[in-house]
Amino acid sequence: MSARRSWVRHANRQGLALAQGCQLFGVARSALNYAAQRPVQDAKLVAWMQGIVRMYPDWGYRLAHGRAVNCGWPVSRNRFHRLWQKHHLQQPLRVPQRKIITGARLDPTPFIRNHIGCYDFVHDRDAAGRMIRCLTVKDEATAYALAIVPALKYSAEDVQHVLERLVQTYGYPAYLRSDRGGEFIAHELRPWLDDNHIKPAYIDAGKPWQNGSSESFNGTLRRGCLNRYEFHGIADATIRMEEWRRIYNEIRPHGRLGYQPPASAYFLERFQERKQVA
After folding, report:
1. What pLDDT, on the 0 to 100 scale, is given for residue 135?
2. pLDDT single digits (tens) 248-277
3. Which of 23, 210, 231, 251 has the smallest set of CB atoms within 10 Å of its CB?
4. What is the distance in angstroms between the CA of the first residue and the CA of the last residue of the chain?
5. Are 211 and 203 in contact (CB under 8 A)?
6. Confidence of residue 34 (pLDDT cuts 50, 70, 90)
7. Radius of gyration over every alpha carbon of the chain, rounded to an integer in angstroms
């Protein structure tokens, strides 16, 4: 249609009447000066998308579209994807890792908030080259990140202190899933777990995919925070990671939750539980 309108205008400049030109090229006279509104609407959406890319460079279009819908943009995923590609906002493709499919289900399987927590360590270095160990704790059912605590070193007592602080805020999980690292199987930690009726769910040696929820979270943490910032000491790392944890819980959409942030699932479930008790 736009091409035919340009032909009518060109013919008019050559001396042909507009009415004759519209009849010749099959263009309605009322549509001759029509201005499409979609480019204006797209420009606003594209500006918003570019802001998302600057703020969260590790996000792909699916997460960005989930955030757009949560923010009230009435846009389909297909249209969002077309604009994402047209304006070259897509991220470099990551090399997919080979997944080992065994058909076995994890035991136990999470089905409700605070049923199963998982924890693990992620390593990084600060600007001075010192090793930083980050203890990550997550609720498996809702993907809610309970804590990211960086330190220069960790003992079983340090892990226990983090867990004690978390159970005061979020309550006691039924299980804690982890690998068989020294801090998780230490004799100093086991009595505390037993006293609080928390069962350790250790994965098999050499099978990190059995703690897949924690491994996935650690990879997201590395792409979105550890690889993005240079830490100038533990205090700086603590501030950066806590801010990223807030974004992960309250802003970043999660595919398994229908592209809602984990906080919506975690606290909605808590509200529903309270209603049932009441």
Report:
1. 96
2. 999 999 998 999 999 998 887 554 544 443
3. 23
4. 63
5. yes
6. low
7. 27
